[in-house]
Fold each of these.
Amino acid sequence: MILSHDVDGPADGPALVLLHSSVCDRRMWEPQWRPLAEAGFRVVRADFRSCGGSPAATAPYSDEDDVLALLDALGVAEAAFVGSSYGGRVALRIAALRPERVTALALLCAGRPGHEPSPALQAFAEAEEGLIDEGELDAAASFNARTWLGPEADGKTRRLVTRMQRENFANWFAAHPSDQDGEADHELPEPALDLRAVTAPTLAVGGAHDLSDFRQIAAGLPGLLPRARHRELPWAGHLPSLERPAEITALLLDFLREEHDHDASGERTAVG
């Protein structure tokens, strides 16, 4: 199966893959989508399984294999990746397993393979699970939006995140109507990874209003990845690309242009 996706921008532009948070789907990138394509990137955004337009899995799979299969189908040999939360975790897995496929990483409040959740993150997961077990999917979706959006998010953004999360729940349970506990998930176990294998230049972004897990992951990545640097945004929660879209678009363009220009050979044209 090929993930549901969009492609925009010049066919000969450097490829850029946007990977969404598990709370959302590829619509979360709407504010960045057009500006990145207009800047000269060939932008690919995809929905993970059970999210947006991608159906739930019926056989064993991994998100990193799904993403790489999509890029193979599009003829993309290498790309820069922007990942939000869980999407950042998937991008890290791809960069560690297939470093030759990744030219740069921008990780927005990303998860990290092997991270042990804090009591606060465990409490969130238990509260979410309790609402789902009670069939309170609307309440669970609202709870997620309240947890993951920082103070800069406006009402329209909060409604969008709530809707995306609620639809993700619906997609899952439509495919697994008798599995209220999620035990039918076919996702393969996360592989053991050595993050020192990641060769791509990396920008690790944290949000001062996020849960401590993700702030600590972002701050710690420069000690784990050979070419990572850290930046914390004092205004941000967990989904900064939705909270201050224009500021994150500018941050991404600055980082991606810098890395593209730095690595460009005489045969490649700098973006912008």
Amino acid sequence: MSLAPRLDLRQSQSLVMTPQLQQAIKLLALSNLEIETFIAEEVERNPLLDAQGGDDGGPSEQADSGEDFEPRDGPADASELILGGGEASGEAALDVDLAVEAFHHDSASDSIGGLDGGLGINGVGGGGSEDGPDLDSLGTSDLSLADHLLAQAGSSVSGPDLFIAQHLIDQIDECGYLTASLREIAERLGVPLARVEAVLGVIQTFDPTGVGARDLAECLALQAKEADRYDPCMARLIDNLELVARGDLARLRRICNVDDEDLADMIRELRNYDPKPGCRYGGDPVPAVTPDIFVARRGNGWAVEINAATLPRLLVNRAYYAEVSGGKQDKASKAWLTDMLASANWLVKALDQRQRTIIKVASEIVKQQEGFFLKGVAHLRPLTLRQVADAIEMHESTVSRVTSNKYLSCARGLFELKYFFTSAIQSADGGEAVSAEAVKSAIKTLIAAEDPKKILSDDTLVEMLNAKGFDIARRTVAKYREAMGIGSSVQRRRQKALEGAG
């Protein structure tokens, strides 16, 4: 074995992802609104790109019942007319697993992190006209709670008291509660505690009623005083909110010294108060969820198409390119112009391929979950990413990216694509497995229809679900019930008692 230094020449192969291919894969995980932002940035950077308003020219899918959801052959769209080919083209280029060791990574930036995100289904956004009302602006007030309180303080107090009021308002959280100790504030400002309490009393008269309270009981008491309902009985009821939460009506009747009718009236009054008065002001508006895909019944089949209203149509301005390239230019300018043309061509093709991939995945989901679209959540089938990936001959990671941050709009509402992928619950009679979402729907239906005088326990729910053909354990019922925000039988019994009293 020689220990002398020497120079060897070795030949090896490695699979390297180009930056363009990495970007194309990232595009799969972006929603239509995120793509719109991305396109705007690219149009600003590349003078050869022109973005037109969204239209219905995107790829769509039509299939009949019983037939495969395969891409239909149709006339070439703008991207196909512009492009004559290019490297890493086609679905196969985007259908890769970035986690495998086959790829060579020159640096940490070569690895693409997941772009998965969650969005709650809050509403449906549409492509309305530009002259229509801005519904998003109606969600919350532009005026913050602090500004609203400071405006009232300026007309109610002055001098040193105004300074104390401003300091107190700074310590009020977004729900309207004072979060700091009055003693600490008095020591910090160097003023008597009684004076701080007096200024706080003034703030507690401001709109909204209940603001400046130090706890829930004080907040409700302020609202009861404003409504002229703060008598000794109501005061004792508010002082025993923990009994109200537990539904201990018998003990509340004894403490408040009232009969059933008076207690019911007091509880009804208490329910009309706002436990978080400050939430009416400020805060970020809840963004509307805009669907990325539309699904509609067409004859015996389904039409699946991209929401083109949120996607600007991207074109390469070849006339401008011909005009600029025809003039005199140095070597650097020519190279830059060539790069801009290649980048524009690639982006148009990548966006077109992204749409086709999304349509292909969404069409397979509609095919697999046709029972849901026809009959509802009770007919939702168990489905995994691998099943869809195998059916359309793509990698599982590609399907995962396509279904991230995407929403599907159909006659039954707006759903995230991830919603259609659920685990399986075995059938009690040995038949076909059912979706976990179908079981959750059955649990919710049974609880909604339960007799207030005969609340269903988890064991009873298990028996009723087994009778319906669901082979499910008690702990699974409890897990699903808690995931849907439904209380236990004891909690529901107390809630029903309170509702009956109210």
